[in-house]
Amino acid sequence: MKKLNINEMPEEIPVFPLSSTIFFPKTVLPLNIFEPRYKQMVEHTIKKQGLIGMIQAKQIEEEENKISLFNIGCVGYIESHYQTPDGRYLINLKGVSRFKIIDEVNNDCLYREFKVNYLDLKKEITNEDLNKVNVNELIDKTKKFFKLNQLSTDWKVVEKVSPDQLVNSLSMICPFTVSEKQRLLETDTLDDRNKVLNQIINFYLLGQATSDERIIH
């Protein structure tokens, strides 16, 4: 597999559609690949640039028997891969850049490829961006949200990550709807993503508070 060079990103990439799954530049997404078409995709990719685009699926178009996709996803580099005795691939994708689909590419493969524009290759997060995230407030809200959904995590680890890692990781792991996750993915700045994340969590917490009030009354 070739070493990643962000100055030589390909115009066309293979795409893995998966609903309720998003990730961001500099985050890591573990995947268990077992479908024949995506096993082929991994096998082809590790012989090339090692890049796979993750994008959320909308719905199946019955006429063409193809999955309808959102326009924006995130491309990742295969940081590590392992083939299990039963033929599956366990891979870790390291996020490189969000991308926007331009057009689908005709190929003879089992998987789909698209021509894309990269959205984040020249963007850098500044200290000013990081300082806009109220980490303590976000963690406090998230603890309530996790309790509401009977989720658990190692909060000592969470409290040590950088503000951008916190916002992006929570956007990835929280059990939001497909449209909510897509909204988070499509935000261009850390500040905007943090605001959207807080809005979504507040919505769920407010809904629970309203339900509790109804029970009390």
Name the features.
single chain; 217 residues; alpha+beta; Archaeosine Trna-guanine Transglycosylase, Chain: A, domain 4; 2 domains; five-stranded mixed beta barrel; two-stranded antiparallel sheet; 8 strands; globular; disordered C terminus
Structure description:
The structure is a single chain. With 217 residues, the protein is of the alpha+beta class. The chain folds into 2 domains: 6-118, LON domain-like (Archaeosine Trna-guanine Transglycosylase, Chain: A, domain 4, Roll), CATH 2.30.130; 127-216. Helix content is 37%, strand content 29%. The protein is built from 7 helices and 8 strands. The protein has helices at residues 36-45, 127-131, 135-148, 155-158, 163-173, 178-186, 190-216, and strands at 12-17, 28-33, 51-55, 57-61, 66-69, 72-83, 89-105, 112-118. The strands form 2 sheets. Strands 1-3-6-7-8 form a 5-stranded mixed beta barrel. The longest helix has 27 residues, at 190-216. The termini are far apart.
Describe the secondary-structure layout.
Elements: E1 12-17, E2 28-33, H1 36-45, E3 51-55, E4 57-61, E5 66-69, E6 72-83, E7 89-105, E8 112-118, H2 127-131, H3 135-148, H4 155-158, H5 163-173, H6 178-186, H7 190-216
Strand order of the largest sheet: 1-3-6-7-8
Share of residues in helices: 25-40%
Q: Low-confidence spans: pLDDT under 50, at least 5 residues? A: 209-217
Q: What count of domains describes the coordinates? A: 2
Distance between the termini: 63 Å
| Overall CATH architecture of the largest domain | Roll
Number of strands: 8
The CATH topology label of the largest domain is: Archaeosine Trna-guanine Transglycosylase, Chain: A, domain 4
Round the Cα radius of gyration to an integer and report it: 19 Å
Shape: globular
Structural class of the helices, strands and pairings? alpha+beta
> So, the CATH homologous superfamily of the largest domain?
LON domain-like
Mean pLDDT: 91
The CATH class of the largest domain is Mainly Beta
